[in-house]
Design a protein that fits this description.
single chain, PH-domain like, four-stranded antiparallel sheet, 6 helices
Length: 209
């Protein structure tokens, strides 16, 4: 039998692929899906949450925010120095600090809100432009690796190619780097598929984000 550029034989509930890069590996699960715009949006929302709630990555990804904070702190220091120079009392000094720090936090919150609020429009545009987001994907996995087959060809990964994985309400993400990921919509999976995928990623030591 064949699937895209793969040939395989079935043995009960398992599939043995006859491709050089698989070396006859037993594929425990296989499923197909065509990502919808909603699937793509869900994947990017999970990705964004993965960054927003990871302080180390937020420091890298939202560097402009930290520049804003730096300017706010500098402004506070200058304000304090200026206040000391003109003889502002302690209560007024506290007011200056509260206003400056509150403004900085408000700017941070505003930029984070924009990231989420602007995401649907950005995904909608990317989904319309990027043809490969609208093709059928067949994904297969085993204890040895993970494969993705599309009408354009097949890519095979070993689990060591991924640095970690994340799970959202509607999708599972597998990260090849901090910014590059593969995703599987949960709507394409049975509960057994999801349980098996979680089991294998835990077994191979893939860290959950």
């Amino acid at each position: 039998m064949s699937q895209g550029s793969l040939t395989y034989t079935t043995h009960g509930d398992t599939i043995v692929f006859n491709a050089p890069f698989l070396s006859g590996a037993l594929i425990l699960r296989s499923l197909s899906f065509t990502p919808s715009e909603a699937d793509t949006l869900a994947a990017h929302r999970t990705f964004l949450r993965y960054y927003v709630f990871s302080w180390s990555r937020m420091l890298k990804s939202y560097l402009p925010i930290w520049w804003i904070i730096s300017f706010v702190i500098a402004g506070v220091l200058l304000g304090v120095l200026g206040a000391l120079h003109v003889g502002v009392n302690a209560l007024q000094m506290v007011g200056i600090l509260v206003v400056a720090l509150g403004g900085g936090l408000a700017l941070v919150a505003f930029f984070l809100w924009l990231s989420f609020a602007g995401l649907p429009r950005l995904v909608k545009r990317n989904y319309a432009q990027q043809a490969m987001l609208r093709v059928n994907y067949t994904v297969c996995w085993s204890d040895e690796g993970f494969e993705v087959t599309t009408p354009r060809g097949t890519i095979a990964y070993i689990w060591g190619d991924f640095i970690q994985w994340a799970e959202g309400p509607e999708t599972v993400l597998m990260f090849q780097s901090d910014r590059m990921f593969n995703f599987i919509p949960k709507s394409a999976c049975s509960s057994a598929d999801l349980d098996d995928l979680r089991r294998i990623m835990a077994a191979v030591g893939l860290k959950r984000a």
